């Protein structure tokens, strides 16, 4: 949209709220007030306000392991920390720890990874909170640079997977939460999906008012830029 701070990630909002401790310099008071939305900023040691979750998460993981036949490590705290840091991806890793086919094969040293001569390779990178698609040729020269994901209320994707206009993914990542269902009425700017990318949570907001036609993703799905997440009619 071009509007500065139109979209603020959960982690950035946490910094402005004081959840990460005192900043080395004062915040922009107007921006901080917008994030606080009437609440008070944290001025004490943030960790003092957090309940001890180790026992709760340990019991939770043990229950999930029992339900899904997951083998946990002898030193269970390692698996608990993995689950605490990455609830979706970490659990998937633990589920497949004895299944080598679920992961990339171990490199043998004989792979031919180099691109064909003259063929540019595309990479998605994030710089200062903005995501770009960069094309790099064999010699390392940058051939193209395209900004993406500057607003989470992104424009519709070109092809719909259900009734209505599709809402595309503004960046590649994994679906962390789906907050709507088909038939649900939504307002413009309402949070529909939370996408996790590079350990950051990004809110996907409705690009217009309407009714959810279809939801094309579920929690844990990996998506690429432009993939249709849902449709709005």
Overview of the molecule:
With 233 residues, this protein is α+β, with helices and mostly antiparallel strands. It folds into four domains: 40 residues, no CATH class; 46 residues; 31 residues, no CATH class; 68 residues, OB fold (Dihydrolipoamide Acetyltransferase, E2P) (Beta Barrel). It is 21% helix and 25% strand. It contains five helices and eleven strands. It has a four-stranded antiparallel beta sheet, with no helix packed on it. The protein has a four-stranded antiparallel beta sheet with strand order 8-7-5-10, with no helix packed on it. Helix 3 packs across helix 4 and helix 4 packs antiparallel against helix 5. The longest helix is centred in the first third of the chain and has 15 residues. It is globular and about 50 Å long.
